[in-house]
Amino acid sequence: MSIIKFLTSKVFFKQLALAAVAIVVFCFLILKWLDITTNNGEFITVPDLKGKSLETVQIELDDNQLAMEIQDSANFNPNYPKFSVIEQDPIAGAQVKENRKIYLTLNPSGYRKVAVPAIMQRTFRQAKPTLEALGFKVGDKLPLTTKIDLVLGNGNRASN
Question: pLDDT of 38-50, one tens digit each?
Answer without folding.
Answer: 777 788 899 999 9
